[in-house]
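Cross-check.
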Amino acid sequence: MSGSKDLFSLAGKVALVSGGAGLYGRHIASALATAGAHVVLAARGTEACEITAADLRAQGLKASAMPLDLADEGSIRTLRDAVVSQHGRIDVLINNAVARVGGDIDHTTREQWEMTSQVNSTGLFLMSRDVGAQMVAQGSGSIVNIASIYGVVGPDFSIYGSTGMTNPAFYAYDKGGMISFTRYLAAYYAPHNIRVNCLSPGGLASPGQPAEFVANYEARVPLGRLAGPDDIKGPVVFLASDASGYVTGVNIPVDGGWTAH
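Predicted model, tokenized:
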């Protein structure tokens, strides 16, 4: 029987994180690397990924950066093949990248909607399919999709007040679809010993957020605060590791209780 610490270990594993230098991506990458994985951070902004990877290596962890354009099917396959060529396998896929263009429903153009869908919907499908094929070939894997509370519940527009911030129309559509697609993938890949799960984070505290928005958000969430950089780490390691070996097809809100009422 494995000890509880061993269950959460990712030693010897290879983890691929799309959007690896993003707000949540860099914290996800740090968590996986700290748990023992070699983490490949991938995004169009390769320089930002390399900065994050270099910081992890400076801490004695294993990390590297590779280019990825989720709007380009060839880029996805090139990334997959490069990771397998260098590391022999892909044990964990974190679908974290998201395109953000457009505003609320009256301030989003057709072109913006189609652009976000190309990345957030089609790109998600292609990444899951192509990396999933590698996991089928090796007989194991864990896919973790990073969705949002706004894939679970409708937005509370009152929290934005007079800040000029809003909740973009594409976000609810794409993240709700991601949660449903998670269940599909979980059922499809289960015979191949591949688990697929989803995390739905709430708002992450970030520099420059208007004080009015922060106050309104924190008054609305039961735990009384925005998420911090460590709040995503435990849940993502749990779903990536053997600690969740009998968990597949679930969506876990990481939201301070936002969706609890």
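Residues 153 and 239 are 22 Å apart (CA to CA). The radius of gyration is 18 Å. Passed to J.P. for a second look.
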